[in-house]
Amino acid sequence: MADGHESDKNIEIWKIKKLIKALESARGNGTSMISLIMPPRDQISRVTKMLGDEFGTASNIKSRVNRQSVLAAITSAQQRLKLYNKVPPNGLVLYTGTVVTEDGKEKKVTIDFEPFKPINASLYLCDNKFHTEALNELLESDDKFGFIVMDGNGTLFGTLSGSADFKTELSQSDMFDPRLQAKILNVVDVSYGGENGFNQAIELSAEILSNVKFIQEKRLIGKYFEEISQDTGKYVFGVDDTLKALEMGAVETLIVWENLDINRYVLKNSVTGEMIIKHLNKEQEADQSNFRDAANSAELEVQEKMPLLEWFANEYKRFGCTLEFVTNKSQEGSQFCRGFGGIGGILRYQLDIRSFDELSDDGEIYEDSD
């Protein structure tokens, strides 16, 4: 299970993946979509001047419609840059322009943000699509791996990527530290000692290193399944029960499938004015009865609609838990998605949601049974 920093990083990666998917699907008429990336230590003044020059060039575009769209996009970029006194420490990413929606209407879009880690790219393109290639750099892993190669003549410590902290921690210990034992991903036999053995160890570990995320995922979901198999009461699954446990502050680790296709609706009863929250999948969204009050047939008006995944990413810290996104590509991940709906949690303490519902109806307070 990841620590708080690792969990935050994974959520930022998920947000970038979601953004890339949305940007790549967007299309415009003509060349009215601007992709602008500024690396750390770049100058706002340089890009502002460049945009001014581009504005002058675009003024000569023969097509009136395309000319107006391009000029509007450049103006939007210029206005957005005025919000920054300098380029943020990790760089600046800006996408702006007019896109065509699914129903054929034009919509102005502007997205600007500082990446969660430095972006080593400089880009300005005006096209009929947004260019996201440089954003994929942000998805590359920063994980560091240590290698130990032992033969009859001694031991070689090395790291693949990053600093030598791993080596230092191990070399200062008289015995193999049990805390490091849990970090072992693989043990391989090498034909050589020294540097040749080090290189061979890297080659033999290539497959397992590429699957580190899946190993972490298997361990996390394995722990979740263990709570279920032992019937500890320290687990929850399904949208409704998981949200109840979250509201109680009982969830330690919230586990969600990264492609969970459920939307969170805030609905208003058109007769009583009561606000209602519902979580609906695609099939439920198509059922109009979910948008009417069963008691008085009043229409439930949509006040807010948001992917539940996005709501979790924005709100999870409020519940004092960590948030872990998982795939369905490992055996454990697939079982979690198919058997448990792709949403669940490991709890801090034993909890019976159904008993809590009964007690809360009587106005009683549920106490920790541990």
Automatic annotation (TrEMBL):
GO terms for cellular component: cytoplasm. GO terms for molecular function: translation release factor activity. Gene3D superfamilies: 3.30.1330.30, eRF1 domain 1 (3.30.960.10), eRF1 domain 2 (3.30.420.60). It is found in: Cytoplasm. Keywords: Cytoplasm, Growth regulation, Protein biosynthesis. SUPFAM superfamilies: L30e-like, N-terminal domain of eukaryotic peptide chain release factor subunit 1, ERF1, Translational machinery components. Residues 5-140 form the eRF1/Pelota-like N-terminal domain. Pfam families: eRF1_1, eRF1_2, eRF1_3. InterPro entries: eFR1_2_sf (IPR042226), eRF1_1_sf (IPR024049), eRF1_2 (IPR005141), eRF1_3 (IPR005142), eRF1_Pelota-like_N (IPR005140), Peptide_chain-rel_eRF1/aRF1 (IPR004403), Ribosomal_eL30-like_sf (IPR029064). Transmembrane segments: none annotated. Its main location: cytoplasm. Belongs to the eukaryotic release factor 1 family. Directs the termination of nascent peptide synthesis (translation) in response to the termination codons UAA, UAG and UGA. Modulates plant growth and development. This is eRF1/Pelota-like N-terminal domain-containing protein.
